[in-house]
Amino acid sequence: MLRNLRTTLSAPVSAAPLAVFRIIFGMMMLGSIVRFMAKGWVQELYVTPKYYFPFYGFEWVKPLGQTGMHLLFILMALSALGILLGLFYRWSAVLFFLSFTYVELIDKTNYLNHYYFVSVVALLMIMVPAHRHFSLDVLRNPSLWVKQVPRWTILIFQLQLGMVYFFAGVAKLNPDWLLEAMPLRYWLPAHTHLPLIGPLLDKLWVAYLFCWFGAFYDLTIPFFLSWRKSRPLAYVTVVVFHVLTAVLFQIGMFPYIMMMSTLVFFSADFHEKVLQFLRGLARSKPVFASAPVPYSKPIPGLVMGFLALHFVVQVLVPWRFLLYPDNLFWTEQGYRFSWRVMLMEKTGTAFFYVRDPRTGQETEINNRDYLTVNQEKMVATQPDMLLQYAHLLRDAFKAKGLPNPQVRAEAYVAMNGRGSRLLIDPQFNLANAQESFRHKPWILPFAEKAPQPTAAGQTK
């Protein structure tokens, strides 16, 4: 069975889809990075903040200062250009993956699903010979040219995209989304000014339609894209779906990345026509060796093992929330890296207090002395960031000469239309709590109805 699988994965197919995917990925990444730099976000997100919130286990990842961060983004842009052109491709792919992922690990405040998606795809790009067809590497060294590549080099991107969609659909199978049309019933009415569809967006039935269609779309679109007969209509649906999300929700480059990436499901003939069109734009002729180099060797065992591990992880990680008690949206334990896209409206306000255990005197913290506006917003609703901030305050007051400071927080959170209520135990000393992958017992249990306040910091 394993031998048959290996033979199937190693079967030669046209290299055109892989070359087009490389061009699309490089183009989208280059455009995104240039846009990011032009808007001043390098300075705003990775230079201006006084403190950062690294991911657990990656505390060693630090910003590189103003000059260092701008140089890192320039390196990232150059490596994206190298991927686009297929120039020094292996080095470009490795440098892009390392630089992009490093930046995303600096501060979880800036976490977005499509940043995670980019890192995952960039990792896979390192492993494939995407530079051996229609590339400057072939122009430099025509002996690299191949007409065919092993099937697995294209299947892995189709599978990764399919998993993104499918798990996004699974995540929508929750009562808030399907039975309450939350949070779309709150978000859509803000766009009634739009032409044509605007007057419909304050109708409750439209919110339900969007929710149910969104779940159906995510769960089924990988299969419709994989079937030749349904592929054209499925791709039209992809375009309409992502254009709507781009117009309604302003979620950056994600809709465009998905629209372009899903072209990898199309036939080799389609991609050959794309390359022919690009060749015409460049007014260039194909550069071939005297004969194409055969590239149908079996998938290396090490590569096959790595890919198997990669996709097992991709399957298991979205389900890790089952290891934790209580409502996932409330605790957010197991929320990230699971393709949960725009599923909740969660707002909050957090008040932090540092206490001198010797005198009992408490100092209320002005969060803006330490955090940016966006960091403060995230800290108020995400328990792991709330804990990191408490440790930051502990260390800051220790540095001022206060021994063993105690830190507590009153964080009031409203989620998906429910009234505001306390997120964590307001009397718990966060200074002594340790970060880990285990459940955080100081998060208060979620209740459908907000408990009634009885006294300061208490509920019943």
Automatic annotation (TrEMBL):
It is found in: Endomembrane system. One of its GO terms (molecular function) is gamma-glutamyl carboxylase activity. It holds the Pfam family VKGC_lumenal_dom. InterPro entries: HTTM-like, HTTM_dom, VKG_COase, VKGC_lumenal_dom. It is a multi-pass membrane protein. GO terms for cellular component: endomembrane system. Residues 10-270 form the HTTM-like domain. The chain crosses the membrane at residues 20-38, 71-91, 111-131, 152-171, 205-225, 232-257, 302-323. Keywords: Disulfide bond, Lyase, Membrane, Transmembrane, Transmembrane helix. PANTHER family: HTTM DOMAIN-CONTAINING PROTEIN (PTHR12639:SF7), VITAMIN K-DEPENDENT GAMMA-CARBOXYLASE (PTHR12639). This is Deoxyribonuclease HsdR. It comes from Rufibacter radiotolerans. The lineage of its organism: Bacteria, Pseudomonadati, Bacteroidota, Cytophagia, Cytophagales.
